[in-house]
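Mods, move this if it's the wrong board.
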Amino acid sequence: MSNSLFDTRVTRMLGIKYPIIQGAMLHISDAVMAAAVSNAGGLGQLATGHLEGKEAIRQEIRRTRELTDKPFGVNLPIGRKPQHETVEVVIEEGVSVVSMSGGNPEPYMARLKEAGVKTLCVIGGTRYAKNAERLGADAVIAMGTEAGGHIGREYVGTFVMVPCIVDAVKIPVIAAGGIGDARGFLAALALGAEAALLGTRFIATRESRAHDDYKAALIKYTEAETIVVQRKVGRTARVLRTPVAERIVEMEEKGATLEDLLPLMSGEQSQKAALRGNVEAGFPSAGQVVGLIHSVPSIDELIRSMVEGAEQIVAHWRG
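Not the wrong board. Structure tokens:
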């Protein structure tokens, strides 16, 4: 069963065993996490938005390669700042997969394609998927509004977005948003996706560098206890409903500008919540999938439970 169930264009294209991809999460997705996911049969990814300079990115790529001989990816947060230098480091270091998020991938696509790097574009709607395909993307990551962190402005859920995009493009579609266990993984494949991307669920794992208090919060909070912030200033993100997050939304409703909000939205605040354990003092990213998080397994255990659970569901259906 495994061969047919998990053999997709995405697994063949990326050279991975299972169609499971780890999202690139600022401050969290480091070499240890990415390597653990890749070693477990999925595709790990490095976040680079918090790394300063080419050499810091190069060192993290090399550190990952010391921990795994399997494929892994690097995320380019193209909405944050120009990524031309990162592209060159990726190519120089022989990274085989890049994901691009938060903006228009066109300035980087030709150089990456020329170097033979597989390109995955994070998109939040059908029109963006069509544009990514036109530009030459190898696959698109369709991120529903349930997802944690920065989300699109279309506010369409994964269950509707994925099949709409599958019908609209010929390249493979990867489902993201609201996936945290075998049921969501299998549902993504049933919707026509050829892989599932998980972000929030990988934060609550033993290899994750997130503070234990952050992991505990992901277990404690329910699916109804996330909130969308920065909607009115064009940087829409889903986070845990903390006092800081509620204050941001309250200020937005009163007409606050981005400049007004910056003291609450600094990188310092994010690091407090993610790495230093003061969750209430920040607004850590989290998707609605927090309602499905009840433990902190190893990454290998998590992926194995998703794979085996999906196989068991299919076996049950088949009688």
